[in-house]
Amino acid sequence: MWANKIYRGILFDFDGVLAQSMEDNFKAWQIATAKYGLTIKKDSYFTLEGMPAKDVVLNLFQDHGQGVPDIEKVVRLKDDYYLRFHQFKLYPGVITLIDNLVENQVPIGIVTGGQKTRILKTVPETFLAKFNTLVTGDMTTKGKPFPDPYLVGCESLGIAPEQCIVIENAPLGIQAAKAANTYCIAICSTLESSYLHETDVVVDSFDQLRDLEVIENLLGGSLN
Fold first, then answer.
1. pLDDT digits over 172-187, tens only?
2. Bridge partners of 165?
3. Which carries the bigger pLDDT value, residue 108 or residue 54?
4. Are 81 and 32 in contact (CB under 8 A)?
5. Cβ neighbourhood burial of 56 (10 Å; 0-12, 13-18, 19+)
6. What phi and psi values does residue 192 have, to the nearest 5 degrees?
7. 22-34 and 71-85 are packed helices; what angle lies between their axes, rounded to 10 degrees?
8. pLDDT score at 110
9. Which residues pair with 110 in a beta bridge?
């Protein structure tokens, strides 16, 4: 069914899809929560990736059976540490594909659970300018796994969800994409494929996106 559809645009998750930022995010959450006596593991956070920051705090503390502290303060601690020590680095193949999409006038956007202030402060403006829209975690009442972020992204691009491809790397993002009725491709950048079973297609790396038929068709076979 999906193979016969005509797609007009792509929405990308940011952390773990475009940017190699999940380790930096994890370290920032690890330090922020440790100040409240919480010890978290990577899988505990990686499976929550895409969720608005306030909800991440709630889930981390509740899942560990601990009382939830001042949520806003924990989020600020996390963001402060991330802003001080993060390193902006894209995955191999990102610039090539994004530039090709731009050259072919394919509508593209970023849909992230990250705070807008954090994205604007840590991502070069020249990179963000390549995208037609940016939807952040503080722009919708309901974040991933609800469809709202991707529905807003589709609306911003001016395309129907059924005509949109979503690139994700985490279960909650996949659930959001599928709930929005988009076609979802998952990348095993931070989690094994067993975590990503609800998606339509799984690839091992961003580079492999270029070989998928739906991407080639979207670009009219002009991918370099």
1. 999 999 999 999 999 9
2. 10, 183
3. 108
4. yes
5. buried
6. -70, 160
7. 130
8. 98
9. 12, 134
Q: Cα separation of 117 and 91, whole Å?
A: 22
Whole-angstrom distance, CA of residue 192 vs CA of residue 156:
31
**C-alpha to C-alpha distance for 18 and 189, rounded to whole angstroms:** 10
Biggest CA pair distance of the chain: 54
Tokens of 80: 């402060």
Half-sphere exposure for 74 (CA within 13 Å, toward CB): 23
pLDDT (tens digit per residue) in 112-139: 998 899 899 999 999 999 999 999 999 9
Of the candidates 199, 179, 177, the one whose C-alpha atom is nearest the C-alpha of residue 187 is: 199
The whole-number pLDDT of residue 221 equals: 58
Nearest C-alpha neighbor of 19 from the set 96, 75, 92: 92
Reported pTM = 0.91
Sign of the C-alpha dihedral computed for residues 104, 137, 25 and 189 taken in this order: negative
**Euclidean distance between the first and final Cα of the chain, in Å?**
27
Give per-residue burial for 63-88: e unless 16+ CB within 10 Å, then b.
eeeeeeeeeeebbebbbebbeeebee
Q: Predicted confidence band at 168 (pLDDT cuts at 50, 70, 90)? A: very high
Beta bridge partners of 184: 166
The residue among 132, 107, 125, 112 whose CA lies nearest residue 53 is 112
Query: What would you report as the CA-atom Rg of the chain, rounded to the nearest whole angstrom?
Result: 17
Which of these, 218, 159, 214, 172, lies nearest to 55 by C-alpha position?
172
